[in-house]
Amino acid sequence: MNYDHKTIEQKWQDKWNKDQLYKTSDDQDKLKYYILDMFPYPSGAGLHVGHPKGYIATDVTARMKMMQGFNVLHPMGWDAFGLPAEQFAIKTGTHPAITTKNNIDNFRRQIKMLGFSYDWDREINTTDDEYVKWTQWIFLQLYHKGLAYEAEVPVNWCPELKAVLANEEVVDGKSDIGGHPVLRVPMRQWMLKITDYAETLLAGLDDLDWPHSIKELQRNWIGRSEGANVDFYIPAIKENLTVFTTRPDTLFGATYMVMAPEHPFVKTLVKPEQKDAVNQYIDNASKKSDLDRTELNKEKTGVFLGAHAINPVNGEEIPIWISDYVLMSYGTGAIMAVPGQDQRDWDFAKTFNLPIIRTVKPSEEFDGEAYTGDGPAINSAFLDGLQVEEAKAKITNWLVNEGKGEKAIQYKLRDWLFSRQRYWGEPIPVIHQDGSPSPLSESELPLLLPEVEKYEPAGTGESPLANISEWVEVKDESGNIVGLRETNTMPQWAGSCWYYLRYIDPKNSEKGWDEAKEKYWMPVDLYVGGAEHAVLHLLYSRFWHHVLYDLGHVSTKEPFQKLFNQGMILGQDGTKMSKSRGNVVNPDETVDTFGADAMRIYEMFMGPLDKAKPWSTTGLQGCARFINKLWNIFFDEDGKLLSKINNESADKETLRALHQMIKKISDNLDQLHFNTCVSEFMIFTNHLQSQNSINKDVLKTFVVCINPFMPHLAEELWASLGESTELSYENWPFYEESLLESDTITIAVQVNGKRRSEINVSTNAKEDEVLEKAKASEKAATFIEGKEIVKEIYVKGRIVNIVVR
RNA sequence: GCCCGGGUGAUGGAAUUGGUAGACAUGACGGACUUAAAAUCCGUUGGCUGAAUAAGCCGUGCCGGUUCGAGUCCGGCCCCGGGCACCA
Q1: Mean pLDDT throughout A276-288?
Q2: Nucleotide nearest to A343 (CA to C1')
Q3: Longest Cα pair distance anywhere in chain A, in angstroms?
Q4: 3 state SS of A246
Q5: What average pLDDT does the structure give for chain A?
Q6: Nucleotides of B under 7 A from a protein CB
Q7: Any atom of strand B under 7 A from CB of A793?
Q8: A36 strand-pairing partners
Q9: Which residues of A spanning 240-259 put their CB closer than 7 angstroms to strand B?
Q10: Is-contact A152 A187, C-beta < 8 A?
Q11: Residue A522 and residue A553: Cα distance in Å, rounded?
Q12: Which pLDDT score is estimated for A115?
């Protein structure tokens, strides 16, 4: 009889539910284990089979940790603000809250059908009033710490749609919807000063157990550079133009300067005869789309201002240009150009016939243009002969002593643009009074979204909220307008920045979370999610966490101790699953046909968790087949326990197979190598299948082992073996070292490193004995015969190598 | 261009971290059961030479090195995936 997944899986899920089996207590006597999934955005399309891959992995881990005696926190929730629900609202008039609720109900149903051990009492939703309250509360903490400010920042303005677009809505400089041109226009925005935390966010990475590549990504994103700020005196306006450079050692090769077109000095510096050209250049630059600016191999452009600066090291007068290859947003918005050692400067110098001086002697074989490698300084007066690092140190000291510069550190990281001109987000709890912002007090939170009739943007670039005057206008008792509410809302990142803290204490109405509980549960021990969040989500939430730590609201410096990125599941055709490609595999059908346990082990068996893999229906069938095979080891045609399952003591070979399996899966689970665990189950099942008599206790131990992977099947088998204790909290088995080894082992015999034969020896055989037997073994002997033995190597329990000449 | 990953049978992948390469699974082929099919079970399955489940040679992207021994370590190259991209 086959395993009846429909009946059995439903039966146990109902029981778990009824018994509230996975309700997490805050009982602090036990060691805790906090295992977190990146919570999903509940889209209208529902789940495809790729989404739960990470959830399966965390569920397996969570269930194993429970069995190992840990108090496990494994929650699930919804990142429910976001654009799609708002766009649907614009199209249909359906309130985003309704769309969101429906989508969540569907997601929850789909997730539940896989039999996960989530504590659903801790489910959270970023759009709940009580949740929004604490998101806003954290914003106020940031505000009061001086980390939130308003600024004029360029945004993606689409005149045709009369709306500000998110970056992801802009494709190749055009609007995603309709393909209309998108301009960069400055508008008032809320910013968060993440740059203040650049250094600590960088340093914090060192101790985290994260994938190397993700740490590297974040390091690059933060982009720390060490160098110097150098002052160039401009006689015409009697002011210094400060530049940042990582190569102060090349100062003697600075033959001109370049400022960003937006640099504030441009207007005062430009000579009358250059004014027209400069203004035209500035105008063109502002119209350039992002695409134009990043175009590869593009020609350098620029205009001479007519002004000069003095090179502080040699008093030379050098011209000042403007060009859009210099960015206002990095460093000081101006550079010293050293074409001899910088390719961009070289290209610019060649285009405009500016002088090039090498200050580092290139290596002999060098035949490129700008030379960026190491070498002795040349044409650099007192630096001549010094290697780059030495020269940097010397010139920096010189600059400091002369009062012409200082050591400096720059970051690529920019402040976080925190406002969105949208309806479906957390309102920013600020009122503008007399032109300056004042935050709401804590007691006024949450500030909730008003009902609106239309979800379209206001048309002015403001959010739909701007049209609701009764909400925007804050009045005193006598009806006078005393302030205007902020109409921007927070980005979707806001809610996901701290959700891991809310899970700890999801129902607390007094606080975002209780300190004692936070201290017990934090940090997250294992965080699993897609690599697409490598930078933004993980950097933003680390930033908030660092701030909360500095304010004393959390007890750990970092939120996520260990991070793991699951790889995507691709369609059968090897491309990304998408509706348009028609290669989406639906989990509802999969579970209906093959069962939740089959889907669970298949997704774990596919390969290493972090690798992308194409879906294979035959592979899934193989896993369903395996489950049936295992089922048929227990039951006969009528579903009765087979009589070959008995209390006769297990043979040595079976015990060895059992304990080897326990050892391997225990080790592999710790390393998140789920695929090899499944193959261990298969190996042991194959072994059991060949047995005529099977000891009941062996099977019980086996059932305990498979439980994290196939909890429904395991429960059914557990009950069939007459057990009534709670399998989910059964002790995880230990392996016995003494049972792992057999009496005899097979040793490969190599001659000159080539395997020639193998011999069986007793496990504790002495080296001499093994070597004798190896040399005497038939095949090996023919290769040794007539040769001189130079060396004999024996690696205990593994291999013999006889070196002959 | 720069920074990370990664190249192992027809396919997904194993390999105790320097010690018998290809576990486990999929697919394919052969067999058993069946009137037949499905399901199930039992074999075979890296390549080449061979009648052979005799023996040998080759084989982990390519070239070279270290070592008694290299998928694993070192040097150089090629290809694929991801990220960043005028960041001074």
Answers
A1: 84
A2: B86
A3: 114
A4: coil
A5: 91
A6: 3-5, 12-16, 19-21, 23-27, 39-42, 55-57, 68-70, 81-88
A7: yes
A8: A527
A9: 243-247
A10: yes
A11: 12
A12: 96
> What does the alpha-carbon distance between residue A542 and residue A200 come to, in Å, rounded to a whole number?
10
> Is the Cβ–Cβ distance between A317 and A310 less than 8 Å?
yes
The residue ranges of DSSP E strands in A571-715, in sequence order, are 613-614, 645-646, 694-695
- pLDDT for A288 equals 66
Q: Which of residues 573-592 of A touch strand B (CB under 7 A)?
A: none
DSSP string, A263-293: -THHHHH--GGGHHHHHHHHHHHHH--HHHH
| Average pLDDT value for residue range A402-417 | 93
**DSSP for A182-216, written as a single string:** -EEEEEEEEEE-GGGGHHHHHHHGGG-B--HHHHH
Q: Is A73 helix (H, G, I), strand (E, B) or coil?
A: strand
Task: Give ∠ CA A334-A339-A342 in degrees, rounded to 5.
Answer: 80
3-state secondary structure (DSSP) of residue A585 = coil
Distances (CA, A) of A171 to A166, A175, A564, A771: 10, 6, 30, 70
- Whole-number Å distance between alpha carbons of A425 and A166: 13
> What confidence tens digit (pLDDT) does each residue in A558-599 have?
999 999 999 999 988 888 888 888 889 999 999 999 999 999
**pLDDT tens for each residue of A698-719:** 999 999 999 999 999 999 999 9
pLDDT tens figures, A202-243: 999 999 999 989 999 999 999 999 999 999 999 999 999 999
Q: At what angle do helices A52-67 and A596-605 cross, to 10 degrees?
A: 100
Report pLDDT for A770.
87
**Nearest alpha-carbon partner for A123 in A105, A96, A141:** A105
DSSP output for A377-398: B-S-GGGTT--HHHHHHHHHHH
* Residues (657-716, chain A) with CB within 7 Å of strand B atoms: 673, 675-676, 678-679, 682-683, 686, 689-690
- The one-character DSSP state at A654 is H
Answer yes or no: are the C-beta atoms of A233 and A309 closer than 8 Å: yes
Residues 193-232 of A with CB under 7 A from strand B: 212-213, 216-217, 220-221, 223, 225, 227
Strands (DSSP E) found in A311-395: 317-322, 334-337
User: Does the N-terminal peptide bond of residue A446 adopt cis geometry, omega within 30 degrees of 0?
Assistant: yes
Residue A291: pLDDT over 60: no
Q: Could you tell me which residues are beta bridge partners of residue A406?
A: A229
Rounded-to-integer distance, Cα A600 and Cα A676, Å: 14
Compute φ and ψ for A34, nearest 5 degrees.
Answer: -105, 115
Count of residues in chain A: 805
Any alpha helices (H) in A694-777, and if so which ranges? 696-706, 711-720, 737-740, 767-776
Measured distance CA(A557)–CA(A551) in Å, rounded: 11
Spatial distance from the CA of A605 to the C1' of B53 (Å): 31
CA–CA distance, A145 with A2 (Å, rounded to integer): 63
CA distance A243 to A710: 62
| Pair type for strands A473-475 and A481-485 | antiparallel
**Which ranges constitute the DSSP H helices of A721-805?**
737-740, 767-776, 778-784
Pairing of strands A163-165, A148-158: antiparallel
- The CA distance from A88 to A107, in Å, is 18
Please spell the DSSP secondary structure of A435-484, one letter per residue.
TEEEEPPGGG---PPPP-S--S--SSSS-GGGG-HHHHEEE-TTS-EEEE
* Interval A746-795: pLDDT, tens: 888 998 888 888 888 888 888 888 888 888 887 788 888 778 888 889 98
Would you call A341 helix, strand, or coil by DSSP? coil
The H-or-E segment that residue A262 falls in is: none
Q: Could you tell me the distance in Å between the CA of residue A589 and the C1' of nucleotide B39?
A: 21
- Say which DSSP state A727 is in: G
Question: Two tokens at A653?
Answer: 């070979």
